[in-house]
Design a protein that fits this description.
heterodimer; A: about 120 residues; mainly beta; Immunoglobulin-like; five-stranded antiparallel β-sheet; 11 strands; about 0% helix; about 55% strand; globular; B: about 110 residues; four-stranded antiparallel β-sheet; about 60% strand
Chain lengths: ~120, ~110
């Protein structure tokens, strides 16, 4: 079962636009929410992450907004650039795990930023 | 890719043949993971290891087995490959259960 739902599947914006990718989760035991960025032919790379005790986190042009009551979180990319064109994955990790991080991933969003 | 290599990077095999994928790390991290990536499914955990000879199943473990005889190596074996196992396989490592996972470059496996 897919415990993390991600939307949209694909997204096209113009340079300078602010793409927004949304994720919703079901399991209230999740306690860590990372976003990964993946370029073609490469493995996913950690982009930014948030814990549920804060509502927003910014790192450079990337911002995560977190709504614990709605069980939703989203990634915003400010002043998007063609180099941001990649596939983005949200993920969630359950607390209380004794063996490994056990990330659950969303389905991914393919972002294209046109020049 | 954080000191993670995967081999082979590409493989084409026939249905019914055994296949072993290797993940090697130079970070001395305790945890290692195998994921598969398929369109529309994101990444799904196959198996993971929390130490030498300590492994456990993930979300999609049927048809796969793993072994870890050394800290640096984690092997994924498809005992009898099927077309449904055509996928891109990623190895990942983490230092502890509460730190980030770092991913390798992936292995593209095609089962014909």
């Amino acid at each position: 079962q897919q415990q993390v739902k991600q939307s949209p599947q694909s997204l096209i914006v113009q340079k300078g636009g602010i793409p927004i990718i949304n994720c919703a989760y079901e399991n209230t035991a999740f306690d860590y929410f990372p976003w990964y960025q993946q370029f073609p032919g490469k493995g996913p790379a950690l982009l930014i992450a948030i814990r549920p005790d804060v509502s927003e986190k910014k790192e450079g042009r990337f911002t995560i907004s977190f709504n614990k009551s709605a069980k939703q979180f989203s990634l915003h990319i400010m002043d998007s650039q063609p180099g941001d064109s990649a596939t983005y994955f949200c993920a969630a990790r359950r607390s209380g795990e004794t063996s490994g991080s056990r990330l659950t991933f969303g389905e991914g969003t393919q972002l294209t930023v046109n020049p | 890719d954080a000191g993670i290599t995967q081999s082979p990077r590409h493989k084409v095999t026939e249905t019914g043949t055994p296949v072993t994928l290797r993940c090697h790390q130079t970070e001395n991290h305790r945890y290692m993971y195998w994921y598969r990536q398929d369109p529309g499914h994101g990444l799904r955990l196959i198996h993971y290891s929390y130490g030498v000879k300590d492994t456990d199943k993930g979300e999609v473990s049927d048809g796969y087995s793993v072994s870890r005889s050394k800290t640096e190596d984690f092997l994924l074996t498809l005992e009898s490959a099927t077309s449904s196992q055509t996928s891109v396989y990623f190895c990942a490592i983490s230092e502890s259960r509460r730190t980030y996972e770092y991913f390798g470059p992936g292995t593209r496996l095609t089962v014909t």
